[in-house]
Design brief:
With 402 residues, the chain is α/β, with parallel strands linked by helices. It contains 13 helices and 16 strands. The structure holds D-gluconic acid and magnesium ion. Catalyzes the dehydration of D-mannonate. Has no detectable activity with a panel of 70 other acid sugars (in vitro).
Amino acid sequence: MRIRDARVIVTSPGRNFVTLKIVTDEGVYGIGDATLNGREKSVVAYLEDHVCPLLIGRDARQIEDIWQLLYRGAYWRRGPVTMRAIAAVDVALWDIKAKTAGMPLYQLLGGRSRDGIMVYGHANGSDIEETVDAVGQYISLGYKAIRAQTGVPGIKDAYGVGRGKLFYEPADAALASVTGWDTRKALNYVPKMFEKLRATYGFDHHLLHDGHHRYTPQEAANLGKMLEPYQLFWLEDVTPAENQEAFKLIRQHTVTPLAVGEIFNTIWDCKDLIQNQLVDYIRATIVGAGGVTHLRRIADLAALYQIRTGCHGATDLSPVTMGTALHFDTWVPNFGIQEYMRHTPETDEVFPHDYSFKDGFLYVGETPGHGVDIDEALAAKYPYDPRQLPIARLPDGTMWNW
Ligand code: GCO
Ligand code: MG
């Protein structure tokens, strides 16, 4: 089974997505997601100029060898652009293999380990009161786990606050919008939100929070400690992870569970945090970390240390990533939770899929492959729409981590 064609489809049904379609000489095709939010065109060029030509004529069944070819063969390793391109090829090839076998992907990975995939939704509001209402909305939709983010008085556009309460889409302008940040204000406000949430809804639901790389290690430790009475499921990206030693300091001060890794690209980014047991959940996902082939290695390493998965699942991860992640989650023994930000109806139409939501869980379908397709005619109606992620600045103008 030889690869006859490999091409990139860019579409923007409400937001930008980059999709790779690989077609074999037997007519079977597979698709993979290559979206890199705010920097989409770099992956398009990497794929079109450097990867697709290499694929033509190769045996589509040799997923591992093609993965190694793209990783080792470039000489230049790792990084978000390279690893997304590799992920797109890998996912498209797994899709082809599973279609050829006549099986849903999770069966090829080793079969079902659970019935449904517990997901968390992203609740937000411009202040505590609005966020408490938004969490209530998720609870009434059946969610068992909700990530709560609030605007903070005095901070312009804190992370996670969207326009509609169920939707959050940060990449909102052709040139990055400028938002504000003030750690002191956030540290005074965020614990009050969790106090109110627990007082209103009790302790039956899992609550999560995203620090979005904003705190220093000491501030992060302080936040984790202040949140202990509210028993969070996890505190995410509480400090930037370039300095991984920082997590030792945080760990010494708090038992609030820690999650990290949505911007990690390989097992090498994860290894020290996992082996030193400095985190509880690893958030690397299919599109960010080299596809099914590589994410499986990360999950297996994490399992040795009782660290569980918590795949990133924001809207910039296309339905192709979501569908593939759900097959992965259905199989992976050390599953923790899956992030699920809903896509708009336009996106869902361009990417027909067979996964479905019920009572706080997502369920994969039984369609052979990963169960997600692309309607190319419809996709063509939504041209690329340049948009970047925002940036954040402190009150005195200093550039900070968004
Ligand atoms: C999350 C993330 C997102 C990212 C986004 C960037 O946990 O869902 O932090 O909101 O900011 O994926 O493209
Ligand atoms: Mg996050």
